[in-house]
Specification:
UDP-xylose transmembrane transporter activity; membrane; 7% strand; 2 domains; three-stranded antiparallel β-sheet; two-stranded antiparallel sheet; mainly alpha; transmembrane; transmembrane helix; 5 strands
């Protein structure tokens, strides 16, 4: 009984920490050298996650494939898809405006502020003093961390107006993504509140039971339904792909049998191409050498796409095993680990830190990161307490954290 439990938890935490931290590393390696490739990275991630989930959500009939019954109607998914797509594109696009990975990680932790404000304005929620104080701490931490990487924080007084303008634009993009994330959270709360615990008619129970779990359904449809929206970015994606293809290449060579069908191709003189080339070691040699020339950026791009799938799978799997409070705490620790890797890995891990470890005010950044971590943990503790009644009787569904 103990060993299966240990295995299950080690697998889940391995997916979360291994997948998400590796994803942060490969993302930084890509964006340092190709900061404008955000849309291409997002497309690759969405395609892989959609292909991975497609077999679980279709069933074959004599008339061909069809989607399995959903637990949630398509309309709420469409609203979430629009917001989710914009958030993903904006977050990746911010790398094109000189926003360091360390600031990117911490700044996105400021979603607590947006969620609280929108919850108070739209959902009429009330918050206890612990939650309010924690949000103020997170806000202060985000401000300090954001300022730590601005050109103003550098000891070099020769400021570049273009760099400052680009950085401010990147922060504005991240701010918009945070606001949209807050709205997405409200939509998801409404959706799961209305359909997550709804009673399923007995006539549909047998069909619904054959469908994947709700977290897998949401993961699939949020990515799959977003794919057509990339048509609006096709020109940017084509440009980004062309830049990736023109990047420096890595070559792998392998020997082929002397008598093969490729010999005809070699003798025809068409033995060179941009990705594959065939050659002989010597003119009279019968040994063929096959060489593959792959753009250097393809390796981190492929690894980033795979680790993104591992990361989101681990997070969704975690939500089925523990309360939302525990999920929040684990993800906060994961962000701290990613930040530590990003800062301390500068100059050690290739592509991490952009080779400019001194471009960030270390004291200011670590102070901000510590305050964000403290505020987020304090917010989670405050959220676990009894909610402040909205008037008269406390409204709830009996759910316990």
């Amino acid at each position: 009984m103990v060993l299966p439990l240990i295995y299950d938890w080690s697998t889940t935490l391995g997916l979360v920490f291994g997948g998400c931290c590796s994803n942060a590393i490969t993302l930084e390696q890509l964006t340092v050298h190709y900061p404008i490739a955000g849309s291409l990275i997002t497309l690759f991630q969405f395609v892989l996650i959609s292909l991975h989930g497609l077999p679980r959500h279709i069933t074959w009939t004599r008339y061909g494939p069809r989607f399995k019954p959903r637990r949630i109607p398509i309309t709420p998914y469409l609203v979430q898809v629009g917001l989710f797509y914009l958030i993903s594109v904006l977050n990746n696009a911010a790398f094109g405006y000189k926003v360091p990975m360390s600031v990117h990680i911490i700044f996105r932790s400021g979603g607590l502020v947006v969620s609280m404000v929108l919850g108070w304005l739209i959902s009429k929620k009330r918050y206890n003093p612990t939650q309010i104080i924690s949000v103020l701490l997170v806000t202060l931490g985000v401000v300090l961390t954001t300022l730590s990487a601005t050109p103003i924080s550098s000891s070099n007084l020769q400021l570049d107006d273009k760099d400052i303008s680009a950085y401010v634009t990147g922060i504005a993009i991240l701010s918009l993504a945070l606001i949209l994330s807050g709205f997405l959270g409200l939509v998801q709360d409404w959706t799961y509140g209305n359909y997550g615990n709804s009673q399923t008619p007995s006539t549909e129970l047998s069909e619904k039971s054959k469908s994947p779990p709700q977290w897998q359904e949401s993961l699939f449809y949020l990515h799959f339904l977003s794919l057509p929206m990339f048509l609006f970015l096709r020109k940017d994606i084509q440009t980004q792909l062309r830049v990736i293809l023109d990047s420096p290449r890595i070559s792998w060579s392998a020997s082929l049998p002397p008598r093969s069908i490729l010999a005809t191709y070699l003798e025809s003189g068409q033995n060179t191409s941009s990705f594959i080339s065939l050659s002989r070691t010597h003119r009279q040699s019968q040994t063929l050498t096959l060489s593959l020339h792959i753009p250097h950026a393809f390796t981190p791009l492929l690894l980033n796409t795979i680790t993104q799938l591992i990361c989101v799978s681990g997070v969704h799997r975690l939500t089925t095993r523990v309360s939302s409070l525990t999920v929040t705490l684990i993800l906060v620790v994961r962000k701290a680990v990613s930040l530590l890797i990003s800062v301390l890995g500068a100059g050690i891990i290739p592509g991490i830190g952009g080779g400019k470890a001194g471009a960030v005010d270390q004291k200011m950044m670590w102070s901000g990161a510590t305050i964000v971590l403290l505020g987020t943990v304090l917010y989670s503790i405050g959220t676990g307490r009894k909610a402040v009644p909205t008037g008269g009787k406390e409204k709830g569904k009996g759910k316990k954290e």
